[in-house]
Amino acid sequence: MTAMKSWSTHYGKRKEIRKRYPSIWRVPLAKQRLELVLREARDGASVLDAGASNRELGDKIREVYPSVIYKTMDIDRAAEHDYYSLDEIDEKFDLIVFSEVIEHLSVEEGTDALKKLRGLLKDGGRLLVTTPNLFHPHRYWDADHRTPYRYDDLAALLVGCGYSVESIYRLYNDPFVWRLLRIHLGALLHRYLDIDFARQIAVVASRG
Fold it and tell me: Residue 1 domain-assigned?
């Protein structure tokens, strides 16, 4: 990763993450991104959805927290957003969601974005980052993806950008019976093959 100031420093941070989560199988499961967002949000909280796409996350949050203040940023000017660049944003947030974006950026761009997002967090604020799970057999390989991240590399990058990593999750949701089979039976085969059925990873981090 050429954007790292020091590979040895990054490697050291990655080793610290691996002490907490020695393998992908020690990373706990959560059903979906929304579950984690709702854990971190609250009524009256300010939320920035960076890379918001169709803004549907805001509607889902307000179903649980009607008074949440939801703002969006996306580079797509064909859709209506509050901001179209991180540099335009002049306020701070309790929670920032950066979902399925960082893999579309170079390491340099991703590092820069994470540093800017840290500056947009209030004291005690949280950042939620999701990205495709590299241990899934084919989840990462979309034509417009530029940088793959294992769970420990992404967490180490966040630490290097000044964050404290609070928790890491594997995101997986299917109908109940299929989910049960995957978790309790299919996992044996997946472990043997050193692959995972969870499609995404999510990291929750604070300003540090």
Answer: no
Range of the domain at 31: 7-206
Residue of 128, 129, 150 whose CA lies nearest to 139: 150
Q: What is the pLDDT of residues 85-102, one digit of tens each?
A: 999 999 999 999 999 999
Please name the residues in contact with 51: beta carbons below 8 A apart, sequence gap of 6 or more.
73, 74, 98, 99, 100, 101
Q: Which ranges constitute the DSSP H helices of 41-175?
A: 56-64, 107-119, 151-160
Check residue 28 and report its DSSP letter: P
Domain of 194: which CATH number?
3.40.50.150
Alpha-carbon separation of residue 159 from 27, 136, 201 (angstroms): 18, 24, 16
98 neighbors 158 (Cβ within 8 angstroms): no
> What global pTM score does this model have?
0.89
- For residue 86, give the nearest of 59, 121, 58 by alpha carbon: 121
